[in-house]
Write a structure and sequence with these properties.
Blueprint (H helix, E strand, L loop, with lengths): L4 E3 L5 E3 L2 H12 L10 H14 L5 E3 H14 L3 H19 L4 H8 L4 H4 L10 H21 L2 H8 L3 E3 L2 H4 L7 E2 L2 H7 L1 E3 L2 E3 L5 H16 L6 E4 L1 H18 L6 H29 L10 E5 L8 H17 L1 E2 L5 E2 L5 E6 L11 H14 L3 E4 H7 L31 E8 H8 L3 H26 L8 H4 L14 H4 L5 E7 L1 H9 L6 H25 L2 E6 L5 H13 L25 H9 L11 E4 L7 H14 L2 E5 L4 E2 L9 E3 L4 E3 L11 E2 L2 E2 L4 E2 L5 H9 L6 H8 L11
Parallel strand pairs: 1-3, 5-8, 8-9, 9-12, 12-13, 14-15, 15-16, 17-18
Antiparallel strand pairs: 1-2, 4-14, 6-7, 10-11, 13-18, 19-22, 20-21, 23-24
The structure holds zinc ion (ZN).
Length: about 725
């Protein structure tokens, strides 16, 4: 046998490569006088000795090899060189062991660490509890880089080739996002903080229990969670029966009794929904942020309680239209929970019996940006006839069946994400297609390695680390001490390969945007190659790999910054300080809303692990018909889409419209009074599939400022032969 394998310090196995030994000795050689240097002959002898020593085992540790080099140098009489080599080795060792978080943590508490403080627009980084989370994050990132991840992955992340997401939580066995199994938790009860919570006896109680579950779940994971609201509908019916019982013996006629019951019920539904909206927006989890919650609004007739579903959805939308009071007592757009509204045959604005609810949804979108829209028709085409909520903002599960052959979505989760910097591959390939696919293959293999690190890191986790998730129903009902491993395998949970900058890479490789025929041909081929990689990994490992359009809140800036530093300013690529999200059309490109939906919808079935398309629209409050046309269009044309509109508020002068980004200062400014104080304005923008309102880093602000409006008189003309005023005074 021969020595073929090296075990690195972190336990990963790499092929044995004798040139690495040679290079290390030569590096030390450069630091001693010529007569002290090791000759090529001595180096060869040392390598031969190493090979002989480990030939039986076929494998050696890095430390074993280094020991033998030291011995070899000394027995060759090269004492000064051996000393240099040992010194170099111990310096490297010290570096590996050194804690490098001092500076980042101290700059955090003195409010000087802008990078970390602005990374997430939903975290207010000056608050003490948020800072504790961020400090823990710095420690986690440091240990992840030095100890937990293989060097190849760490280097690829540092070079901006890939992004290993959520390093700040990697230290602990946490997953990303999930669909909470409320059906199970409500029906069978749950346990929180060691206390039994039984099945709710009224709607109001169900709402309270739900917000408690939300808080507990979001403190045990780092991404978003979703709730199918239909599970609350049943408890409206429970409350109705309660009221009927109370009033039964009263001496009034039946009709009046029912009327009173309905009045009381409406009051309770209003109060319950208020509880949800206020609780979620005022909660602060241990992650230092409002929980990332998505409420799924899908009129599901097969579920039953249809009247109750409708009553609930109407209330949720109407309360959202009203908004939520800020500290000055003014109604503003609440960033959470995110609302997702499903368009189906019965409510897609073509005369269906539930169109009236969609009308309210449209008004809500105009005023408060949410809800986003899912086309049940398009979704069924991609997901084996199923309609289900995204996990958090846009992560979609793959269909999976339980032992009885039934599809199951609730109670499943995403293990984590690693994203690929596509533009960087384009820059390195310099237009050479062959080289491009070669580099891509190599980068994909790093992504696979990184995702497997995520998976292995979760293996062996006992259910006790997050009882609400693993023992009390949010995900599973495991016993104490049981490990979560079966839930990580067989495609039950997903592992996401994300990607950024399809627009930029296409531009680099073809000279054109992916919206042209030539560009599209390349872009589609690339997207299919990414998808094929995840399918291949799935076949090889049996794990739930999926292709995912990364929400690039700060990543669009990070990748562009790194590439600009490494490769300089490249027109239309690095010069604009951000890369474009997933497969999206460049924000600067003039394209109307309908064409954008049509074009981007081609990528959605390929990116079935998650994605969302958006169009940028002006304030549409005075042009609901225009918005209605776009919503109607979604049903037949695109699976998942959202609208970005502007509903800002200036506390200084009371201006209620769009707060602008000053082109000179790149900062936010009230167009009415010139106020630039972030603390005295409410600016709500779509940042990562959620809304954000705590302001953004420079890259994101630049990207927001360059967003082109996708609707004006021209685009609606095409479909209606009528002219619509968009209502904002702009054309
Ligand atoms: Zn103002």
């Amino acid at each position: 046998m021969a020595l073929t394998t090296i075990e690195k310090r972190n336990g990963t196995l790499v092929p044995f490569d004798s040139t690495k030994i040679k290079i290390a000795i030569e590096k030390a050689n450069a630091n001693v006088s010529p007569e002290e240097q090791a000759t090529d002959c001595l180096i060869d002898n040392i390598i031969t000795a190493i090979k002989a020593r480990f030939s039986d085992l076929g494998i050696a540790g890095v430390e074993d090899i280094q020991d033998m080099v030291e011995v070899g140098l000394m027995s060759g009489g090269k004492y000064a060189l051996a000393k240099k080599y040992i010194l170099y080795r111990s310096t490297r060792e010290a570096l590996r062991r050194a804690n490098t978080t001092d500076e980042s943590v101290l700059s955090l508490v003195s409010f000087k660490n802008k990078d970390v403080m602005e990374e997430n627009s939903n975290k207010n980084a000056v608050i003490i509890s948020t800072q504790r989370d961020l400090i823990a994050g710095e420690v986690s990132k440091d240990l992840t880089d030095r100890i937990l991840l293989p060097e190849r992955v760490v280097k690829a992340h540092a070079d901006g080739a890939i992004h290993f997401h959520d390093k700040d939580y990697f230290l602990q066995p946490m997953y990303n996002c999930c669909l909470v199994n409320y059906s199970d938790m409500f029906t069978n009860g749950t346990v929180m903080n060691g206390k039994m919570i039984e099945t709710p006896k009224s709607f109001q109680v169900a709402c309270t229990v739900m917000t408690q579950i939300i808080a507990a779940v979001s403190s045990s994971q780092y991404g978003g969670q979703s709730l199918d609201l239909k599970h609350l509908a049943k408890y409206i019916s429970v409350s109705r029966e309660r009221y009927r019982k109370i009033i039964r013996t009263e001496d009034i006629d039946e009709k009046s009794k029912e009327h009173i019951v309905e009045l009381m019920l409406q009051k309770e539904v209003k109060a319950g929904v208020q509880t949800i909206q206020y609780q979620i927006n005022t909660l602060m989890t241990t992650n230092g942020q409002t929980p990332f919650v998505t409420l799924f609004i899908n009129i599901d007739e097969s579920y039953g309680y249809v009247d109750e579903q409708l009553m609930l959805y109407k209330e949720v939308l109407e309360q959202r239209i009203e908004g939520i009071k800020n500290e000055a007592g003014v109604y503003v757009t609440p960033p959470f929970p995110k609302l997702v509204y499903v368009l189906d045959e019965h409510n897609n604005l073509t005369g269906g019996k539930y169109d009236w609810l969609t009308e309210i949804a449209v008004e809500c979108t105009a005023k408060r940006m949410y809800p986003d829209y899912i086309s049940a028709k398009k979704m069924r085409e991609t997901y084996q006839g199923n309609v289900f909520a995204p996990m958090g903002c846009r992560s979609f599960l793959s269909p999976w069946k339980d032992e009885d052959g039934n599809y199951k979505f609730e109670g499943r989760f995403n293990q984590g994400v690693v994203s690929l910097n596509l533009p960087q591959i384009g820059i390195l390939a310099k237009g050479d297609k062959l080289k491009f696919w070669e580099i891509l293959e190599d980068r994909l293999s790093i992504c696979f390695e990184a995702l497997m690190c995520r998976h292995r890191h979760l293996l062996g986790t006992p259910s006790d680390v997050a009882p609400i998730l693993w023992q009390h129903g949010a995900i599973a009902r495991l016993k104490p001490g049981e490990v979560i491993d079966p839930l990580l395998k067989g495609g039950y949970s997903t592992l996401s390969l994300g990607y950024i900058g399809l627009y930029e890479v296409t531009k680099l490789m073809t000279g054109e945007s992916h919206t042209t025929d030539k560009g599209y041909e390349f872009a589609e081929k690339l997207m299919k190659a990414l998808r094929e990689a995840t399918d291949r990994w799935k076949r090889q490992t049996g794990l739930g790999f999926a292709l995912y359009g990364t929400p690039a809140e700060s990543l669009c800036y990070r990748f562009a910054r790194i590439d600009k530093e490494r490769f300089g300013s490249i027109k239309d690529i690095t010069d604009k300080n951000y890369y474009t999200n997933s497969y999206h059309v460049d924000v600067r490109e003039g394209i109307d809303a309908f064409s954008k939906f049509d074009f981007e919808s081609k990528f959605q079935p390929i990116s079935s692990g998650g994605c969302i398309s958006y169009v940028e629209i002006p304030n549409m409050n005075k042009n609901l018909e225009g918005l209605r046309q776009m919503v109607k269009y979604i049903y037949d044309h695109i699976q998942y889409a959202e609208f970005n509109t502007k509903t800002d508020y200036c506390h200084e002068c009371g201006y209620d419209g769009e707060i602008i980004i000053d082109p000179e200062t790149h900062d936010w400014k009230c167009p009415n009074c010139g106020n630039t104080d972030h603390r005295k304005m409410t600016v709500v923008r779509r940042t990562c599939g959620y809304l954000g309102s705590n302001f953004w880093n420079r890259g994101k602000t630049d990207e927001i400022s360059k967003r082109v409006i996708h609707v004006g008189t021209y685009s609606l003309d095409r479909f209606n032969n009528a002219t619509y005023d968009c209502g904002c005074g702009e054309s």
